[in-house]
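New to this. Please check this record:
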Amino acid sequence: MKYRLRLLRAWGPAILSALLLIGSLLLLWTVTDFPLPAEATLRRLEDQSLLPHGSTLASGTVELEPFADRIPRFTWTLRGDGERSWALLTESFGFLSRPYSRYIPNAVQAEGGPFWGTLLEIQTFSTFSPSLYGPTETNWATQFFLLARTTDPAVVRVEAQAGWQEEAGKTDTLAAGGLTPAEGCEGVWTGLLTQDPSANGRLVWRLRAYDKAGYLLYEDCSDPARFAP
């Protein structure tokens, strides 16, 4: 009996600390919606999207404008199986991750061919401008995160347009700008565009790839009819 008491006194605090640590980790895992190691999360997304298990080609982290005391932040990952490639969004918690909660429905796309692109995420946020004749004016702006993938080394520039389009063929109110080559993977381009103020209408996007002479090589868009002159 005395021997057991000595063991309890000697090992009791350590056992209690271990149990508290395990309980804390389980609570954290539950609160963060059961995240998994990064590779397991990517494979889960691929299974849900009926995609094969690919290998990671490139990835990066994006931080959007804050809204409602929250700063949206996610990791994009380009995966491929040698024939096709696709993009996935996740949210990281150290070495664990889970599917990004604001994932827009068409964010997972499997594409082949020499060039393809997609709109991966949008974020609407409020902007404020002073007024000389009344209270501060509040407007709404929208950020768009786009990704393009090409296997053609002749592509040296990728231009993007995105936004809410009031009527077909009208592109002057869309956000526009160039995408930036992603680090660590040739042929991957990403970028953020901002439409301020946001217009009413239909959500559209277009990506265009050019060679060093400025000739248009490829184009991908949400709806060709919306960009027809």
User: Anything to note?
Assistant: The chain has two domains: 1-31, 35-227. The first strand starts at residue 36 and ends at 37. The first helix runs from residue 2 to 31.
